[in-house]
Amino acid sequence: MLEHEEMGRQIIRGIQEVIHANVTKLDALDRAIGDGDHGTNLDRGFTAVWAKIESQDDQSLAAVLKTTATTLISTVGGAAGPLYGTAFLRASTAIAQSNDEPVRQTAVAFAAALEGVQARGKATTGEKTMVDALAPAVEAIAAAVDAGADTVTVLDRAAIAARAGMEATIPMLATKGRASYLGERSIGHQDPGATSCYLIIQVIADTMRDRSARA
Question: Which residues contact 131 (CB under 8 A, 6 or more apart)?
């Protein structure tokens, strides 16, 4: 996957489109337990990201992810900008420093993203955050890579695990971020951060599957 210079552009374009299509849903989820602007903020951020990527010369995956990171940090308000920015920045650095085969680069990049998010947000699984979608995805990737799966399969399993993790946030009590102020009233609501995280991982999986089918 990671050797294709067009891959980064396709992934970011796909993310921008899916976030834009889900603005209302993400804002509604956030309205129930947060400030109600998660979708709006991410839409603004990824729209700015795509505009910058279209005009930059370096289209390598590492460069595209780095631009994504710095733009999200500067344009997205609340916790989402720093968290997603850190995730993309750590992934970019991991890819730039890795000489592994593409499928193992994928595992390294996702693991670095999770480590960055957890370091920045001080969150772990079970606290009703994006980590509840990202951590299961990283675990699924590692298991699939160890089993010898190809990149398409690895990412499909990541998306399945992220979706399950997202859905598992519904009965959780929020103990991090704005939602934690609600106490038990946060129970019964799907976390918006876990939702956007799942959507992003699904886009990555879909992009890889589409590219593989056309190869």
Answer: 114, 117, 118, 121, 123, 124, 125, 194
pTM of the predicted model, to two decimals? 0.94
- CB contact at 8 A, 144 and 157: yes
Answer for the pair 63, 56: CB distance below 8 angstroms, yes or no.
yes
Half-sphere exposure of 145 (CA within 13 A, CB side): 21
Backbone phi, psi, residue 130, to 5° = -60, -20
State the CATH architecture for 5-214. Alpha Horseshoe (1.25)
Extract the tokens encoding 23.
């603005």
Render pLDDT for 93-150 as a digit per residue (tens, 0 to 9): 999 998 888 899 999 999 999 999 999 999 999 999 999 999 999 999 999 999 999 9
Give the closest residue to 176 by CA, choosing from 158, 191, 159.
Answer: 191
- The dihedral sign for the CA sequence 31, 33, 35, 37: negative
Q: Give the domain ranges of the chain.
A: 5-214
How far CA 33 is from CA of 25, 96, 177, in Å, comes to 13, 37, 10
